[in-house]
Design goal:
195 residues; mainly alpha; 0% strand
């Protein structure tokens, strides 16, 4: 029993020393991983505050309004109305493929944070193999730190573009919809009266 306790204590000391050595040896990589975790967490906060449900409804309304114009408007269109309708029609282009993008960003946020944390833990614990059985050595650590931080940077940029696109879409809708509302209301009345 005493020998077992001694073996466990020695193993714990070796593991602790290995962890301290790796913390020093891979300080740059650990710092980069921690900074990336913080960036991913901040991006997740921004992402979760985006009015994505409202935007999807707004984009659907714009498409429905444009379908109404195409199916109901007759005669010549003056230049100002044409320009306004064109800009209104383009509002959904501020965030292309929003529904698909939402799913992709959700998955990447979860996966990226998890992988960053696991890589940091593997470095600190002195793990020799990853979950797939790949050897964890200096090259692996540097390569995967670079890869994971790049993924997070791309994700952060994607969320920033979504935030900017969201703000622009809302501003354009607020600007153009009131200008078009009388025309849309008139076309709606015409559409109801059509047999």
């Amino acid at each position: 029993m005493r020998q077992l306790s001694l073996i466990i204590a020695i193993s714990a000391v070796i593991l602790l020393m290995s962890s301290c050595d790796n913390a020093k040896r891979y300080k740059l990589e650990i710092d980069r991983l921690e900074a990336s975790v913080a960036s991913a967490d901040s991006a997740a906060v921004v992402y979760n505050q985006l009015p994505l449900d409202s935007l999807q409804r707004l984009f659907k309304k714009v498409k429905n309004d444009m379908a109404l114009v195409q199916s109901t408007f007759e005669g010549e269109m003056n230049k100002d109305l044409g320009v306004t309708l064109s800009r209104y029609r383009d509002i959904p282009n501020n965030i292309k493929n929003l529904a698909q993008l939402r799913g992709q960003v959700n998955k990447e946020l979860e996966l990226s944070s998890k992988q960053l944390i696991q890589l940091k833990e593997a470095i600190l614990s002195g793990a020799n193999k990853d979950s797939k059985g790949n050897s964890i050595d200096e090259n692996y650590i540097k390569k995967n730190t670079e890869l994971e931080t790049k993924v997070v940077n791309n994700l952060v940029q994607q969320i920033q573009r979504m935030q900017s696109g969201s703000e622009k879409a809302m501003a354009e809708y607020t600007k153009y919809y009131p200008m078009l509302k009388p025309t849309l209301d008139s076309l709606q009345s015409i559409a109801k009266d059509k047999p």
